[in-house]
Batch of 4 targets.
Target 1
Amino acid sequence: MDNLSNIDYASYLKGWIRAVPDWPHKGVMFRDITPLLQNPKTFRMLIDVFVHRYMDQDIDLIAGLDARGFIIGSVLAYELNVGFVPIRKKGKLPYTTIAEEYELEYGNATVEMHTDACKPGDRVILVDDLVATGGTMMAGYHLLQKLGADVLEAAAIIELPELGGGKLVREDGLQLFTICSFSGL
């Protein structure tokens, strides 16, 4: 991050994240990264932050969580010249899969990954756009562990600390890097 140390990239990028009140449910403040991705300068800066963080690490794969983790993760994998693994919502992958169920605020969900997506010892960075309750991130982490991968770190653009997901991820022994956080739901 030496090249970016003189820039308050976190504040700059945070300013491009739109707040959408009462979506998808009343009382929820949705953090929309679409404006950040639409602007070529901010999208490039976002990817550069992650590239600078991971470019000197020995990484085999980037795993991206459905769906916005695919956007960040695939571009990051390309820039780092490593493979990309999609972790999808249940029923979206065409080959043999393993699954992990997790709790949502109003029910359960399941994510899946191909059984040959990684192999024991692969060094992986797990990527999503946001860490809220931590359920999706932890489910992806557990899937990668089931296949023997060494998950070096989880990464996201945004952390919502009041929902406790970042704390949950860290307490389970997974390092977490986020660019910015939002308080107040």
Target 2
Amino acid sequence: MSTFAERIISFNESLEFTGTLPEGIRIMNPFKESPVALQSSSTFYRKYYDDELPRHLILGINPGRFGSGFTGISFTDPKRLVTNCQIDFPGPMTHEPSSEYIYDMIKAFGGVEEFYQQFYIHSICPLGFTIMGENGKETNYNYYDNKALLKAVYPFIVKNIRTQIAMGFETDVCFCFGTGKNEAFFRKLNEEHHFFKKIVALEHPRYIMQYKSKLKQEYIAKYLQAFSEK
């Protein structure tokens, strides 16, 4: 019987969006675009998920360019992959504020091994999107930022949440990163498809780091309290 690690790696390798996106929006698939992302993420999952321990899902929005866009691991930028997980990364040492927050929270939780034995983080939409900014540079784009985009990726979202649940994750409660549009969409989706008995939403790490950084420790305490009540 395969472990969580092998099922997650297989899931990542199979991720592919075959629909049509609105003009100007690009899909970001690190597992197809970057051998480094596939290699580093596979090493990560074999290190922390090579077992059958019961775990709960945490779902963010969709991957960002400087975190999982490089490493293939949700909320894990290259800096945290090397420093906190002791996994080599043969690429640029990008920094993502969301990843910084998550690994500070994980440290407070009890460390990476303790945390990843209980939780698996991914995204409601498992692939990311970018759009060209006015400055001519690509910027992150969320699945809910455009009605046409949401319509295009809706079946993809439903299919991949089902696929991840089928890996064997717990369905009594799912944690959602994002208390605005992400939570609203996810709750409606869950009402329609009955994926989980309960959804617990927490402020998104990016929001905390961008707007509430002085209260970071209070938000970490809130996260830990929510996780302890699962």
Target 3
Amino acid sequence: MKLRNVLIVVRDIERSRKYYHDLFGLETVLDNDGNMILSEGLVLQDAKIWENFLGKDIIPKNNASELYFEERDIEGFIQKLEELYPDTVYVNRLMTHSWGQRVIRFYDPDGNLIEVGTPME
């Protein structure tokens, strides 16, 4: 068995496509009208489709999962994040864990939690 994709729910799929392209360089692999697959296996699902399928409300900022990215130039990434998306809501600004890894955590425009950290080499 192989994990193929991770799906997140978004309210505006085009805004989210642009967000993940601008910040992480993810490209559109398949656009299937409300279900968009990006490179690296991230899937954007339109919230209306997801709510219809589940029959339940979407709960933004539920803190039950996290997308994790690694970036060597974390200061450069933070500068890009602040320039392109100045209204970003942070969980924590740049911090250093006891094991030496530097990380930042924030929400995407739909309340999906993201962590960007320096590689652990």
Target 4
Amino acid sequence: MRIARFSIDGTVGFGVVVPAPEGEPGGAAAGAVSRPTAGLALDIIKGHPFGDFDRSGKLVPMDQVRLLPPVLPSKVVAVGRNYAEHARELGHEVPQVPVVFFKPSTSVIGPGDEIVYPGFSTEVHHEAELAVVIGRLCKDVPRERAAEVILGYTCANDITARDIQRSEDQWARAKGFDSSCPLGPWVETELDPSDLAMICTVNGEQRQLGRTSEMVRDVADLIVHITAAMTLLPGDVILTGTPAGVGPLHVGDEVAVSIEGIGTLTNKVATRD
């Protein structure tokens, strides 16, 4: 099941992504960003996806809504250097224990939203990642129960000010600036994350290509490690690391992260007004 968060006429809600009925009109909403959503609709749900909910049967063509970040996390817990080739391309060894850092909730944007190039950096990079969306409050989760706390998975882009990351011991500015955490386009709840293809393109040119099977530590291991230290809340997000091939973004670029079984997250890079 794919669950999207959306806005239409100022109202925010959740819906299940379904095929649009044949012959359904699909005019784009004013100001909507063009997305590969032709032939899709949202079955608006009653309630929210972190508990029991019913599908209303009221279908809204996808092109008539604005897709929002699929969740609003209280925190984004990110894992660095979880792909050996990526660690090596930046001149690092694979760490003995996972490198964990935070991206604030204010860094989160959705599909079609602009990545705003920060004025304090001259070297901003893309990092395609599989994101885990937590579905229930959890702490000290044993490996064999990790799947029980997961709502689903979405695409993420861990946008990084690489020059700032190199010059500062803490990564708060380098990875936590506004718009540095695109998420979307929706949450896929029925997915085996163990071996998924992941591609990142910039202006249609392939930059990153990897598989989640290349992770040093898998999703369950990361959940065990993180929840040993902190409580995760429904809607919190874990970023699982990026494969090799990270590289620069410039104002005007369009960057897309595609993950097998989920879909594609697309954003453009803009300058601050």
